[in-house]
Amino acid sequence: MAEPSAVVAQLIFGIVRGILLGCVFALIAHGLNLIWGIAKVVNVAHGEFIMLGAYGAYFLNLFLGLNPLVSAPIDAALGLAVGLGFYFGFLHRELRGKEAITLQSEMVTLVATFGLSLFIANAANVLFSGNFVGIPWNAGSVELGILQIPLGGIYVAILSVAIIALTQIFLNRTYLGIGIRAYSQDIPATQLMGINPTVVAAIGTGLGFGVTMAGGAFLTVLFPTGIYPYMGALYAPISFVIVVLGGPGKMWGSLVGGITLGIIIDVGQIFLGPSIAYAVAFLTLIPVLLFRPEGILR
Amino acid sequence: MKLPAIPKLGPTVWGIAAFLVVGAVAAPWIPIYPLTILIGLLVFAALAYSMNFITGLTGYVSFGQVVFMGTGAYAWGYVVGTFRWHPIGGVLVGAAVGALLALGLGAVTLRFRGVYFAIATLVMPLAAVDIILVTPALGGGQGIILNLGFEPLSWFYTIWVILAIEIGLTYWVTHGRIGYGLRAIKGDEDAAKTLGIDAARLKLFVFCFSGLFTGAAGAVNAWTLSGVFPNDAFALLFSLQMLAMVVIGGMGTLLGPLLGAVVVYIPHTYFLTVVVGAEFIVIGILIAIIALVIPEGIVGALRRHIPALRRILE
After folding, report:
1. Prediction ipTM score
2. How far is A286 from chain B (nearest CA, A)?
3. Which whole-number Å values give the CA distances from A42 to A38, A47, A240, B109, B116, in the listed order?
4. Contact: B123, A278; criterion CB under 8 Å
5. Cβ pair A121, A233 in contact under 8 A
6. Burial grade of B173 (CB within 10 A; 0-12, 13-18, 19 or more)
7. Which pTM value belongs to this model?
8. Which of A20, A240, B297, B301 is most solvent-facing, going by the fewest CB within 10 Å?
9. Which of A41, A110, A111, A120 should be substituted to probe chain B, the one whose Cβ sees the most B Cβ atoms within 10 Å?
10. Does B275 contact chain A (CB < 8 Å)?
11. Tens digit of pLDDT for each residue in A21-69?
């Protein structure tokens, strides 16, 4: 290792980049968390919808010249539609009329979404070809002392936190949002309050997909050439780890888990190399599950 | 309540035994290309049965089976490459390492229920490959390359023996006290515990079998490739294929994994020459439909809808 001041500079750089990365990771994990927390469905195909979001941004850039920040809301709208379709086409059959989502149902949807994930990833591989593509968009960078921080990363990090905050306000302050949270806690009681469980579950799932696909668009800013059909196989496990770190169903947990993981990966990459950094990031899951299964947030 | 008696060695067992014996007798006369296909099929069937031990019998969905396959392959490559062992000795080492790893990982991860077990096992191969890539003793990113020559008959009989033992063990486990215990755990683990079933021990027991045979199959697979390569040995795709075979064939059944292996492996070999991965477009949809509509798989659905087959299929 070089002299101490260089190490400190690297450490600070790693932490800053890690926080930016972590905010976007938090957003994609937030999409999973919404679906997991509300509809009680663990979407194994989550990574594939991140991939579709990234390709959405890519094609909008290719054909219309839009930058990823503008593509994100379009992606989110698309995600809402896809999520509603996913709920009614896929989950409704298993979940309708249930008074509580049992372990059995969870395993059924786990295996079913696993099949869906194989389908989407390989169909994308045939349709889009297996090459890595990227979006040529550079927003410049700012200099903070000796640090050079890409502006694009700052934009997407701020937008990610804003989106998480917005969904949080929606879930806590609006009638529909409170209905969705009620559904996630007690389905029969929700029905007694005059709320249609199918409608709120579908909207919750759609919201989760919208957030996921917007997150996919933001990822293209951080990883300029990282769009390929099987990218979901990396981001889905990352999202799972983040949700477990933060605690499933805890919405601020995504942010805490995301930033934790972002810092682990980025600081680890500088001091231990990329392989070990990702291994450490994945394996943090095990002690958390063993000792704090409710997540690191209380 | 009196449980229905299970017939001794039903037609399914005889059918599978006939398939294996005919294969073993005919193998020296089968032309090379069909023989290599058959070897691949048997490797896949061995993997499917090993997945059946944990996911089929207990209902714990494991996305991390490939971690045993990869470590089995690496153990095989290490003793064959470094100590110049005979490959069959290497396969035994691979099996032992797979079982030991399953014991260690299972002791930790089998505490997690349902989705949490699936996620905890999902990250294992991802972390394992990252660690292997920076381990010089195991070849790092390059892997272990051996030049062992082309000996399809040795491969065939090795995987044949592994598969035969595995199917025998599956039969033994499902047709006795252990089988009733496992079915109780699959139905409702807490209820099973109140009946005095030592759930933790039973789960660990079948998980070790699972690791043992996955490790052995992984070692044979590495033998057919004459080497071990990190990104292939730990490819998550193998886990997914194993799960696909068990789900399609029928979880926890005796014939299901073999049937699933045929359904998954044959298109796989065909599409290798067209577009890699294209078969998963069909297999993915098939899994989704089966999970939602007939969660008991092909064998289970046949048993449920055609009463005449209930005595025959298991």
Report:
1. 0.87
2. 7
3. 10, 12, 9, 18, 10
4. no
5. yes
6. buried
7. 0.89
8. B301
9. A111
10. yes
11. 999 999 999 999 998 888 788 888 999 999 999 999 999 998 998 888 8
